[in-house]
Write a structure and sequence with these properties.
It is built from 15 helices and eight strands. It is an alpha/beta fold. The protein has an eight-stranded mixed beta sheet, sandwiched between helices. Strand 1, helix 2 and strand 2 form a beta-alpha-beta unit. Helix 11 packs across helix 15 and helix 13 crosses helix 14.
């Protein structure tokens, strides 16, 4: 039995490393130049913001100072914040001296059947559509753009005729908890959704990174608008599936679009992951059980059988563990971390298994999808 488990684990890692779209290379392709379009498209950025006083100034300022040659404006939806989010944002054009128009909308109360973020986006998109933009930049309130990134995004979207162009922002990775869990978060995301497969129109895999999504307005309207995903907890990947039915999409990795949201401890990372982990499993106890078994074979078996096995079992397990560590190394390098973290991926995966179980328990108790003080996942 141990030989079969070790062989299965090695087979899984051979498949992942050599036959799953090269997800683990962590190739930074979001910064590569694209051909300059004949005419720069009209873009409106839509920012849903709820209690984002700590990050909103950096986010909005980074957009106000973009050197975009086309028409560009910003619509921020204050999603019933009880802090100074709206006031801070409203004062930024004067403070920066930017000519970019900024509209701050007061969000309406959250109706039944919508998640908070998507309801705020719905209101922001309605406001933006009065300007008839070519593209909507749907971006989170903790995302900061390096100079020139809006120009780069627009050029890529226009040259590829993409209906959705998205960038995986570089997440904050400073505290011990962030160093332990953030690179693995992006690594696991790329494992689930290999970017090469996402970007292949012939492949059914679709995904996006919700912090930075440039959406063609006409294509979104054809798909039925943002309301078609109104209750999705994993809104970015759900939107990507909808948009890929409308045309080609593109997802890349960058270090010039950053998230500045801090996760000072494990509890914040737990909240981020558990909010939607069970939704990823379609709220199915069977899929949860199968996922935990699969993760145990994939991540636990290699180190356990390396130390507890003998002969061929130990060699197979050691080879699986080595492939696992090698595949994690590029993501660690992207985040500037030591390769000594690579062999610890089984322990990190254990944490994510615990977060997933917690997500299921929260959902079953009617407390699923907690974010910004609201529970948004309905009990099955």
């Amino acid at each position: 039995m141990t030989f079969l488990i070790a062989a299965l684990s090695l087979a899984i890692w051979v498949y992942c490393v050599f036959f799953r779209g090269g997800y683990w290379h962590a190739r930074v392709n979001g910064d590569e130049p694209a051909p300059t379009p004949e005419a720069w498209p009209h873009i409106v950025a839509v920012i849903p913001a709820r209690n984002e006083a700590e990050t909103i100034a950096d986010c909005v300022t980074s957009l106000l100072i973009q050197d975009y040659p086309g028409r560009f404006s910003i619509v921020l939806v204050d999603d019933n914040s009880d802090d100074a989010t709206a006031a801070i944002a409203a004062g930024l054009p004067e403070r920066t001296g930017s000519p970019v128009p900024l509209t701050v909308l007061k969000g309406a109360p959250l109706p039944d059947g919508w998640t908070g973020k998507l309801w705020a986006l719905q209101q922001g998109i309605a406001g933006a559509e009065r300007e008839s933009p070519d593209y909507l930049l749907l971006t989170d309130a903790d995302i900061v753009y390096a100079p020139g990134m809006l120009r780069s995004l627009a050029a890529r979207a226009a040259s590829g005729r993409y209906v959705l162009t998205s960038l995986m922002a570089k997440l904050r990775c400073e505290t011990l908890a962030e160093r332990a869990f953030i690179p693995a978060f992006v690594y696991f995301f790329q494992m689930l959704y290999p970017f090469a497969w996402v970007n292949d129109p012939r492949h059914r895999v679709a995904a996006a990174a919700g912090g930075c999504m440039l959406v063609r307005t006409a294509a979104l309207a054809r798909a039925g608008g943002i309301g078609v995903i109104r209750n999705a907890l994993i809104d970015d990947c759900t939107l990507a599936r909808v948009m890929k039915a409308q045309g080609p999409i593109w997802l890349g990795l960058t270090d010039r679009v950053r998230s500045i949201r801090a996760s000072t401890g494990i509890s914040e990372i737990h909240t981020m992951v558990s909010r939607s982990a069970y939704a990823q499993l379609r709220y199915s106890p069977l899929l949860l059980a199968l996922t935990l078994i699969g993760m145990a074979v994939t991540y636990w078996a290699p180190p356990l059988l390396t130390f507890a096995g003998a002969g061929g079992v130990r060699l197979l397990a050691l080879a699986a563990w080595a492939l696992m560590a090698v595949s994690f190394w590029p993501m660690l390098r992207f985040y500037g971390l030591s390769p000594l973290w690579a062999p610890l991926l089984p322990a990190i995966a254990t944490g994510y298994m615990a977060f997933t179980c917690s997500s299921a328990l929260q959902h079953m108790s009617g407390r699923g999808g907690r974010w910004k003080g609201r529970y948004q996942a309905k009990r099955a």
